[in-house]
Structures are given as C-alpha cells and as structure tokens.
Design a protein that fits this description.
GD_AH_C; Altronate dehydratase; 36 strands; UxaA_altronate/galactarate_dh; 30% helix
C-alpha cells in the first residue's frame, strides 16, 4: 500500500457527524487516508479547501457541513470521492490546472427552503454581562455620536460628480497634517452614486451620507455638491435633521461648487486649513470599551473561513457585547442557507421577522435583474472551496458565536444606537457592505479572509484576519491576525483573547497593517435599475448591435480637410500617444494599481517611449451579478486592453474575484485577442502589495527594454478616431458644425463615435448632414472596440456622464470632443477631452475650465476645433480640467447589473 495519511494530517471535519471533509492542502488522486477505521482512496485530485466524502452518500441525500445541508447527491458518492457541482466544474475549466477534474458533477445546489416556525418561537436570553470595566484610548464625541478610534478630516462628495473634486483636494492637502499625531489624516470619500436622474437608492444614499458625517471617527467633514444633482447637500442636511442625526455635534460645512474647478479647490483648501487647529486640539482619553462598535466582514473567503477566522470573530464579538459594546453582522445574501443557525437565538419575534423580510426583499430585487441571490460566490471563492452560496453562508454565519443572540435587524446604514449584536442588510460585496457599517456607526472593522483580501476603509481601521498559516505567511505584510493557529492546535479562547487585546490596542491608536500600507477604498451600495420584473424578458433579449458602421448621406462637404497630424507607428498600431496601462480586474485591485501607477510616474519610468502610466480603478468584477452585466464589463475592459493608445498593458487581479486573470484570458481568447502580449500579476498570489508592486514594475521595465522603436508618421483626417458628446442645451450652430466635422472625418476614412444618449442625435442641425431619418439604432455595444472605421452610435444604458465617457473611450477613440451647454464634464484618465462651448452658452463661472469657445462666424468653427484637436493629439496643449485633476472613471452595470 502507498503512504497512508491519518485524517488529521490532511483534512478537517467542520463538525462531527458531517459527511464531507475539507482538505487542508492539495491531495493528489490516489491519496490514501485512514479515517475512523477505514481507508479512503481519493478518486481525483482534491484542491486545498475542497471537499471529499467521508461517508457513503446516496442519491437524493444531503451533503452536510456544520450539520447543515449545502447540496444533494446526484449519484452515489463513495468515501474518498471528490464532491463537486457543475458551477465549480465550469469555474475550474478556465483555470490553468495541471490535473484533471471530474467530467460530471456528483451533487446539485439544492437546499430545502427555510420555514420560520413563528408559533413555537421563544425569545433567547442575552449572554450574562461582565461586571468589570475595560477601557481604550479614544476620542470622546457628543454622547449621540459615541467615541472615535481615529480623528480624521473627511472630504465627502455628495454624488459621483464631485468625486474628482474631493480626491484632488485631498491630494493637495496631504502635507498639512502629517506631523500632527492628533490628526490621523485628511481623506476623500468619493463614490459612484447619485449621478443619474431618479436613482432607486436615494433613501439608502441619504442615510449613508448622513451616517458618514456623524461617524465618531470624524473630527470634521466638508460635504460638497454642485447643487443640481439628483442628490444634493440640501437633501442630505434635511434628511439628517429629520432623522435626528447629530450633525451639529460635528465640525462641518456644506459647500456647493459654483466657480471654476481651480477656484473651488483654493476655497476648499482654505476651509480645511481653518479647521486644523480645532481638530488638532481633540485628544484621546480613557473610554469604556462599550463604546466600540465593530463591523464584521468576510471577503476573499475560503473553506477555512467558517472553521478558523469567522468563529474567531464570533468569539471576539461575543466578548465585546458582554462588555456592553456592539457588533454588526452583514452581507444578506451570504446568509441564505444559514437561516436555521442565524435564527437559533434571537431577541424577539420582531427581529426574526425583520431578518427574513430583508432576505426575501434581497432575493426579489435580484430576481428583477435576471439573476439569483444564490449566485454570490466569486471565482476566487469557488477556487478556494466555497462551492455555492449555501456553503459560503454556513461559514459566514460563524461570525456569530453559537452563544450570541441576534438583538436587532436593521436597514443598510441604519444607526446602531445601543450595545448588542446587530444584523444589517447589505450585499455580499465587501466594500459596499463596509460602507453601510461605517454609516451605522462602526468605529472598527474586523475582516476575515481566506485568499487574503487587502481592502480597507479610509477613516475606520480594518483588522485583517486570515484563515490559514500558509496564506498568512504569503501575505504577512498585509494581514494582522493568523487564525490558522487555531487549525494547528491553539485554543479558540487563547487566540480570541489575543485578538481582543489587539483590538483594544488598535482602537487606542496602534495602526493596523492596512493603515500602515496606506490602502483604502470606498463603495456605497450601487443603484439598481429595475423596480420590478416587467422589462426583464425584453432586456434579456435585446438585439445585439452588428458592429457595422452606419451609412451616412453622400452629400459633398466643401471644407478644407488638408490638416495633418503627427502620430507614431509601432508594427500595426498607429496612434497619437503611447501609454503603459495597468488594468485592475476588479474593484479591490484598483487602489493598489493606482499606487503602482503613481510611483512609476514619479520615477519617470518609461520615458521617452511612454508618455505616462495610467490605471483604470473601477467598482466591478466582484460582488456583482453575472450575465449581461458581467459580459458588458469584460467587453469594456478588453476595449481598453486593445486601445490604440496603449503600448504596454498589464492585468492586475486581486486574486479572489469573479473576473480574475484567467477569466480575462479566457474572454480574450473568445474574442480573438492575443492575451500572450500582456502582463499578469496577482496581489494575493504574488505575496501582497509590496511584492506585487515590484513584480509589476519589473515587467514594464523588461517590456521597455525589449520594445522595438516606434516611427513617426503623418496622417490626415483618415487617421482620426473621435468621440463626440454633448451636455446641456445645444447651440444650433455648434451642432451643425459638429455634424459637418463628422462628415469630413468619416468621408476621409476616419472614425467618429457618438453615444446613444447624446442630445446631438436629436438635433436636426447635427443629424441633417449624416442621415435622413432620426430612427437610427446603435451600431456598437457599450465599450465595444470598434473594428471598422466610419460613423458609429454606441449603446448607453444610463444617462450618467462619466459612465458614458468610460464606455466611449473603450471603443478606441483617441480624442473626445465635448460640446458643453452648462457645466464642463469630468475628464477621462487617458483619452483627452476637448471641452468646447459657444459664446451664447450659460456657463456661469465655468468658462475658465473650457478649452475652446466658439464665437463669431460659425463657418470657421470646424477649423478651430481641428486646430485645437491637433494641439492636443500632438501634446502641445493639455486640456485644462485634465491638467487640474478633474478626472473620473466609472463602469456602468447596464440595466441588469445588481450587487451580490
């Protein structure tokens, strides 16, 4: 007989009596394991965290972990057989594995629906309280706000439209506080919400913004809008006062931006500087730990999350609640299937009803979008052994200790007013869920992770708890706690007490690992497009654009089109610019990509071959629905990967997302894109932020050394790739001249793309030069790389300005001409935007932000636009708002995308 392993050497059983065990490291096919007097022989290679049967499981019988079902057998499963469902089989098929996986699944994701027995419900008693008092060093605020673990100045954008303003303002103010130990930072809170007409999440957004303002970690807050968005400062203030948020107990100011971008930045700097002495005077004092409010999260989970790290948080939160503090469990869809455990101890029947109401509402909302709340697990989750939502939920629920009762079930961002154990409605998307807990008043976040998620929040410290020693060693510079010690024999009481003491130290000012790394991100629960299922069938069967150019009327254009442009050519790529692009494959890789990009640019790397390095931080790729929304995301990202301005491109994955590097490679293969020319790096698998940064920098350095030199070429209008957008009222003469310009470029063999939502298409002055009918359908999908020059209309599923520009730039245009009627637009990270207006436009105080004012004889406007375009494309003129930092990037989720 081959080497025989004792069961404890190679696997764990979550609870005695379960019929499936978890492999603690990869076990090859044929491995022999001794278990309870029998010898098990593995029929397939079982990856770390994946499961194999330890008992015979008959067809129709439940597969059990923690004594709870996570699926039903489709065929007889013998002891030693690898258990796998179809979803994981498919997920592994796009991975680059060196071993075979079963050709067919042997279990299905089937769990009997939970039925609440209200008639026999019995309220649970609270755990006994501790009589002694523990303290931490915190910032005492007004009694309605609590006690802070940090002291930050927060710059809060009311909607996505002011996100670039608060980001740029924070950058300018970084030197103002760094030598002051009483101020932890000046941080921006930019987000994606409130930028479209009549969003469905308005109440949720107002509640979150009000909660952000009064969180006890805030020493002062500047709240910024333009005054005409769908969510404004006035609405936030009115909501806060109506719902008794103590905003008068926090130093704050509401500001509406009415002047030019630069003028408003100067005003913002002055306001914050006036606050510095007041915020600096705030001191830490000894405070009872009953003032700690901790948010419990898990992300990048694996099969050991429910065995080591989540039970550890359950232990810590039970201790804190017994001291009078509060803990918040969240991620609604990640508790589906674990209802029997969650509701095993509840304060009262009203709380149980509310919990189930929130779960059912979540399921209904996702169904409107053609998806299922049970579809949550990401590719990284499945790769690490979480086969479905039931298995993920059972483990996630272990953040509630078996002795802990659920005291409250609350809405997303609803304030936690008393001590106790809370459940808060939120999606499983980690960052969206954390934002709700911060709005609810959490002053610390405890985050468990199996793969090694590195996400943190800007002004609430995050304590990272990793599930296994092997992963902790790989990511030791980015993790705070090794819960794998429990798997190796340390008692939960001993480990829990160590982490509890660490929590008090971090609450008192000791920096968490994430704070030392300077890493932080924000995402509020994103808007959902549908309010019922009435449009679902139509949306699921919407015709796909053909990709063929739209024929335009063959009318002569008597304009001088002899203008020439100096471009570069490298092999078959001809372009006006050459950039190094880092594409984060999910939201959690975005900020790290930004850190690497800034460092490369500061070092002057790539010069002179590359003009600069750019990244495209976004909110997608994980914790969102699949289907059309996921296809839209992949298509748009590949549009950027193949963009003519991109000389060298690297994909940076977080490591546990849906749209990881292997997923993107597979999508490129399907679309006929050469994936071999790209670089690939993984924050988790390459060893954390510092190590992956070194790898990315080394890859670009190698590519630059090996690159062939580019040659200069001269092109006419046929070489132009132009996008045209409009915002606000359209001047008739300007519209007509843009129509003529379009005809000239297309007639010469160039490319012009106009988004479907542009008001230009409804203007006769523009369209009369192009086509005779107004019923022209889009020719390309949102974010689709244009393969044939000509005139194109791009699908646009929302009216959001930045989302429109994000899709438009992915088509391959190298310049965007924006006709401005009221206020300039936020610019793109690397495709330059020429902001044009007419002298009649009502721009108030924004004309300093515009690049070209059309005045006088309209007959010369086309030449003026082309001359300024030439300056931009040849880099002798930089558009004003790009130069000032008014830059944003936001991916649309289409009509059917929804947070999971």
């Amino acid at each position: 007989m081959d080497v025989v392993y004792q069961f404890e050497e190679v696997a764990r059983l979550p609870l005695p009596g379960d019929n499936c065990a978890v492999a603690i490291h990869q076990l090859n096919s044929g491995t022999v394991i001794q278990y309870e007097g029998q010898f098990l022989v593995l029929d397939y290679t079982v990856m770390e965290g994946h499961r194999f049967a330890v008992k015979t499981i008959a067809p129709g019988e439940d597969l059990l972990s923690w004594h709870l079902p996570f699926g039903v057998a489709l065929k007889p499963i013998q002891p030693g057989h690898y258990v796998i469902n179809e979803t994981v089989r498919e997920a592994l098929s796009v991975r680059q594995l060196t071993f075979a996986v079963p050709a067919e699944p042997n279990f299905a994701d089937q769990v009997s629906p939970y039925i609440f027995d209200e008639e026999n419900f019995r309220p649970a008693q609270a755990s006994p309280v501790f009589n002694d008092t523990r303290t931490f060093m915190g910032y005492r605020r007004h009694e309605d706000r609590g006690v802070g673990t940090r002291n930050y100045i927060v710059l809060l954008g009311t909607t996505s439209q002011t996100g670039s303003y608060v980001n740029e303002l924070a950058t300018r103010l970084q030197g103002e506080w760094k030598n002051d130990s009483n101020i932890d930072g000046i941080v921006p809170v930019a987000h994606t919400e409130g930028g479209t007409e009549n969003p469905n999440n308005v109440d949720l957004l107002l509640r979150t913004l009000a909660g952000f303002m009064v969180n006890p970690n805030v020493g002062a807050v500047l709240v910024v809008d333009y005054g005409n968005e769908s969510v404004t400062n006035k609405m936030v203030e009115a909501y806060a006062r109506e719902h008794s948020y103590p905003i008068d107990e926090v130093l704050h100011k509401f500001v509406s931006l009415t002047g030019s971008f630069e003028e408003e930045l100067v005003k913002g700097e002055a306001i914050v500087r006036e606050w510095l002495s007041t915020v600096k005077a705030m001191q830490r004092t000894p405070e009872s730990i009953r003032h700690l409010r901790i948010g419990l999260q898990c992300g990048g989970s694996d099969a050991f999350s429910g065995v080591s790290a989540n039970p550890l948080l359950g232990w810590v939160s039970e201790q804190l609640v017994r001291y009078g503090g509060a803990a918040s469990l969240a991620e609604t869809d990640e508790l589906i299937g674990a209802e029997p455990y969650v509701l095993s101890k509840v304060r009262n029947v009203e709380t149980a009803r509310k919990f189930l109401e929130l779960v059912n509402r979540f399921k209904e909302r996702t169904s409107w979008h053609g998806t299922s709340a049970e579809g949550n697990p990401s590719g990284g989750n499945m790769y690490r052994g979480l086969y479905n939502i039931y298995l993920k939920s059972i483990g996630a629920a272990m953040k509630k200790d078996p002795t802990t009762r659920i005291d409250y079930a609350t809405e997303y961002g609803e304030l936690m007013k008393d001590g106790g154990y809370y459940f808060m409605d939120s999606p499983g998307n980690d960052l969206e869920s954390i934002a709700g807990q911060v709005a609810a008043g959490c002053n610390m976040i405890f985050f468990t992770t199996g793969n090694g998620s590195i996400t943190n929040f800007p002004y609430v410290p995050t304590v990272k708890v990793v599930t296994t020693t092997r992963r902790f060693q790989l990511l030791s510079n980015d993790m705070d706690v090794n819960a794998g010690q429990y798997l190796e024999g340390k008692s939960m009481d001993e480990l829990g007490q160590e982490v509890f003491e660490l929590a008090i130290q971090i609450a008192s000012g000791q920096q968490s690992v994430g704070e030392k790394a300077g890493h932080a991100q924000v995402q509020i629960w994103r808007n959902w497009q549908q309010n019922d299922a009435s449009r679902l069938d139509t949306l699921l069967h919407t015709p796909v654009p053909t990709g063929a150019p739209i024929e335009i009327e063959d009318k002569a254009v008597t304009r001088n089109n002899s203008l020439q442009f100096s471009f570069t050519r490298h092999r078959n790529r001809q372009s006006s610019d050459n950039i190094g692009l880092i594409v984060p494959t999910s939201l959690c890789a975005g900020q790290v990509a930004g850190m690497i990009t800034r460092r490369l640019n500061e070092q002057g790397a790539g010069k002179p071959e590359l003009s600069r390095f750019v990244t495209l931080a976004h909110t997608e790729g994980c914790g969102t629905s699949g289907g059309p929304a996921e296809s839209l995301f992949a298509r748009t990202m590949i549009g950027y990967i193949t963009h003519p301005m991109v000389k060298h491109c690297l994909l940076l994955e977080h490591g546990c997302e849906k749209t990881h590097n292997d997923y993107m490679r597979h999508q490129m293969d399907v679309m006929g894109v050469d994936a071999s020319r790209l670089g690939y790096a993984s924050i988790q698998l390459d060893g954390g932020i510092a190590k992956v940064s070194e790898k990315v920098e080394a890859w670009f350095a190698d590519r630059l050394v090996a690159a062939d030199p580019a040659e200069k070429v001269t092109v006419g209008l046929e070489g132009l790739r132009i996008g045209i957008v409009s915002v606000g009222a359209i001047n008739k003469d300007a519209g007509e001249q843009l129509g003529l310009l379009t005809k000239m470029i297309v007639g010469a063999g160039g490319l012009v793309v106009v988004p479907e939502n542009s008001g230009l298409l409804a203007e006769d002055a523009f369209s009369q030069h192009l086509f005779s009918t107004s019923q022209v359908r889009p020719s390309i999908s949102y974010g689709e790389h244009v393969r044939r020059n000509g005139f194109h209309i791009m699908e646009t599923p929302t009216t959001h300005g930045v989302e429109t520009i994000t899709g438009l730039a992915a088509t391959g245009v190298e310049l965007i001409i924006a006709l401005i009627g009221d206020r300039p637009m936020q610019t793109h990270p690397f495709v330059p935007m020429l902001q044009v207006t007419s002298e009649q436009a009502d721009l108030h105080n924004h004309k300093q932000d515009v690049d070209l004012v059309l005045e006088g004889n309209p007959g010369i406007w086309v030449n003026q636009i082309l001359e300024r375009s030439k300056e931009i494309l040849e880099h002798t003129y930089v558009p004003r708002l790009y130069q000032q930092g008014n830059i944003d990037f936001q991916m649309t989720r289409g009509f059917l995308g929804v947070s999971l």
